[in-house]
Structure formats: structure tokens, C-alpha cells
Amino acid sequence: MKLKLSEFFTVRKVLSFLLLLSMAYAGYSIYYKVKYWGFTFSPKQVTDVWTIDAKISFNAVGEDVNVALTVPSSNDSFKILSEEIVAKGYKVVDDNKNNRISFQGKKKQGKQNLYYRLSIYDDVQNSKLSKQVPAKVERPILSEEETQQMNKIWELAELQEGDKVQKIISTVNQELVNPTMSLVLPLNHTSKEFAERIMQILAYKRIPSRIVRAIKLEEGKKTEKPGIMLEAYLDNKWTLYDLDTAQKGLPKNWIVFQRGGVSLLDVRGGEDSKVMFSVLKSVASPLKMAEYRAKANSEFMPYQYSIYALPLMEQNTLKWLMIFPLAILVVVIMRNVIGVTTMGTFTPMLLAMSLVKTGFVPGLVCFSVMIFLGLIMRALVAKLNLLLVPRISFVVIFVILLIQLLTIIGYRMNYGIVSSAIFFPIIITAWIIERASITWEEDGARNTVKEIFFTLLTAIVTYFVISNDYVRHIMFAFNELNLVIMFIVMLLGTYTGYRLTELTRFAPLIRKDEADV
């Protein structure tokens, strides 16, 4: 029985199962971050943040002042990033139930200016409609003459295209009805009066409707009045209508600022009141916006325990750590699958990190110069027959002096390629020089050049993997992928077959066996 269990629970099978679990966890975590935190797979993608400023102006008449402004609330489409209020000398009261902000002041006199700033984000260009079922609509009380006029309007509307609301808007807009009718608006009517008359006509057929005020998201735009639209409940859903064109839906780059019959601005204790709106657009990275999205979805995974809640300096440090496992995976594949020999296990990875800092061509040039000069000095010191520790110490000091010299030359000659030497790990460079010298003495120049070449080749392959902006962004934003990489590395550790270089090496023997058969 023990034998059977040991055969079933082999190391490779257990690691394969753990790899599948890590992939499932990483997949769910990535889905969660994209859906709830707004992460993206592109480092260049940004989130639009729209700031709407409302300036309230009026003349106070020396009495107590109460100003009420209707403000939007977060819906399924756009979310509120921040709200700011500037009202010196006023008490601010939030009426969250009615989505209103009240400014209360004592004995105010003269010109008054109050400011309200709202920043919103996410899909603000496609604001979703309310799902609230309206109350039953009472038919308006009309005289006999008005009832006849109302029936006439609905008869003419049947000749138009679209749904019932579109037909009524088109009919009234095209002035198909007799201008002498009492239900027809005068020529100089306002948008609000037009919307109220359409609502009255719809109420005759018990169709719920309400006024909607919307603001166009156009940077630098200033307006005294939000746009007036109509929202009607038809076919068990709310639908927005443009009062000019009768088109359905919210126009592009508009957001709903207020719904319902409550007025936008009420001022008591003042006169000549008005509100001026202005719009400003800015952008923010998905990682920066993740905190706000996480707070809006606080019932899910706690954001405060993630690395993205750390200060920016710590995050920048972790960005490099998150890319290390991928660089390690490249080195493992190059050594254990392809079968190349490098000077040190993770020396290519450290060199690749240095190349990212220095730049590809400058880094290769400086590294080659340092190794070449280091090998010459090491060959000269070898004749002195020094002990191991003093000999390596000499190489380290020489590398330090060489870096110093190259940096000074680069600065004086304004040649940035030379100053890149300062980014190379001193100890690793000195160790490569020492290792190359020993290999040269024991195995000859050919093996030494071969090891240096494969070390550089592995470093170059690793560099092109980790220097990609998309790769670095994905590994930091979705760092659970490192768990998958860990089990892949462990699985590669169970591989005992031929490496690619060994297949080439033993190819003549395979051909010989086939010929004998």
C-alpha cells in the first residue's frame, strides 16, 4: 500500500497539482483586479478624471441665507473621486437622501460666491440610467377644450416615427399642431418649459417622465445652465431623450448631474442667483486609481493589505523585486533546458539588471572593456603567486578604480556611454574576472571565451524579457504570477532528460546506433 501511495504522490505530480492551483489562483486574482480595481494590462493606459466646478453667485439682502444645490451621486457607471466645498462663513449641511448640499449663513450682505467641486472617474461617458420603478402617474386635470387638444396632439403623433415619447417630441418640435391651442408653448419658451409640457402630454397617457439636467464633459467649457433632457419610463425601463432631436440615449461626453423635479439651485435670503459650471479633464494611472476603486468595493479583498497601498518609494523598490522571478526563470531555462554554461548561476540575471540601468549598447561596451582590462591585470598579478583572498581583493579594488576612471573620462568627454560602468555590480564583475582567469588556466582559452559568451547571451536574453515595459507592468500589477513561476521552476528542477545542447553533442552516437540496426 505504501508503495502505491508513493507512486501516486510523486514529486512531479504534486508539483504539477500545485502549479494548477497557483494558475487558478492567479487567474481569479487577475480577474478580480481588472474588474474591481480597474487594473489594465497596458502600462500606458490611463483613467480619465473629470473635475466639474460649480460657482454659485447671488446678492445677499442682509438676511439669513440658505442655499441648496442639487449634486449627483455615484452610480453604476461613474464614481465620485472627491468633493470639495469652499464657502467661507457658511455652515455646510449634506442631505444625502435628496442628493443636495445646503449652505447656511447668518445675516449676509452683498455679493456672495460659493464653490462646489466634484471629481468623477470611470465610465462617465456612458452614465447608466436609474432602475427605480416610478410611482403611478396621475392624469392632468384638463378642460373639455384642452382634452380635445390633447387627443389631437396624440393623433398627429401617430404619424411620426419612433416610440411614443419620440413621436410626441417630434410632433411638438415640428409645430404640426395649431399654434392657437392652449397646450402649445409660445415661441420664446425655455427648455425647462418645453420639457414640462412634454411631461404633461405624456402624463395624459400615464407615462412616467421627469426632467434630467446633464453637463457636457468638454474641457474648458463654461456654462450657466446644464442641458435639459427628458427621461421617460417606457417598456419597464427609463430612457433618456434629447428634446431637440428626439434621439434616445445620453449624448457622448455628457453626464447626468440631476434627476427629478427638485430644482437645481434654491436661494433664500438672496437675489439674482445663478450657478456657473466649468469642466477640467485630467488623467491618472490605474494603479493610482485602484485605491479609490477598492474603497468603493470594500466588501471584497482588502486593498490596504496589498503592496499597492505602500508609499511610492517602497512600490518602486518592489517593482524591481517583482521582475526577479521572471529573470530567474529565463536563467533556469537557459541552463537546465537549453544546457548553456554560464559563469555563476545568477550572474546573467544581475548583468541583465545592470543593462536595464545602463542601456543595452552602453552597458555591453563598458562591460566588455572592464572584463578585457581586468583579465590583462589578472594575468599580470598571477605571476606574483599571491594567495587567493589577496588576489581576489586586488581584482575588486582594480574594478573599483577602473569604474572611477571610466566615470571621470565619461564626464570630461561628455560621453555618457563610459559613465554607465558605475551601474555594474563590483563584486560580480571582479568574480567574473577571477573565474575567467582560473578557467583560462585550467581549461584553456576556448572554454573561457565560451563561458563568457554564454553568460553574455543569457544576460542579453534576460534583458530583452525584463526590459519590456508591458512585462514589467504586468509582473508588478499582477504579482501573483510569481507564484506560478515558482512552481514552474520547481517542475523544471525535476527534469532529468537531455538538454538541447546535449542532443546536438550526442547526435553522432544516435546516427551510429541507427546505422548498426
Question: What does this molecule look like?
Answer:
By secondary structure, the protein is of the alpha+beta class. 48% of the residues lie in helices and 20% in strands. It is built from 17 helices and 13 strands. A 5-stranded antiparallel β-sheet has the order 3-6-1-13-8, with helices on one face. A 4-stranded antiparallel β-sheet has the order 4-5-2-12, with no helix packed on it. The protein has a 4-stranded antiparallel β-sheet with strand order 10-9-7-11. Strand 4 (91-95) and strand 5 (100-105) form a beta hairpin. The two termini are 42 Å apart. The mean pLDDT is 79.
What's a concise summary of this model?
By secondary structure, this protein is of the alpha+beta class.
Radius of gyration (Å): 37 Å
Kindly report the spatial arrangement of strands forming the biggest sheet.
3-6-1-13-8
Topology as a string of helices (H) and strands (E): HHEEEEEEHHHEEEEEEEHHHHHHHHHHHH
Beta-strand content bin = 15-25%
Spans of at least 5 consecutive residues with low confidence: none
**Mean pLDDT, as a whole number?**
79
What is the count of β-strands? 13
Helix count from the secondary structure assignment: 17
Helicity level, as a percent range? Answer: 40-55%
Shape: elongated
Major sheet description = 5 strands, antiparallel
Structural class: alpha+beta
Cα-to-Cα separation, first versus last residue: 42 Å
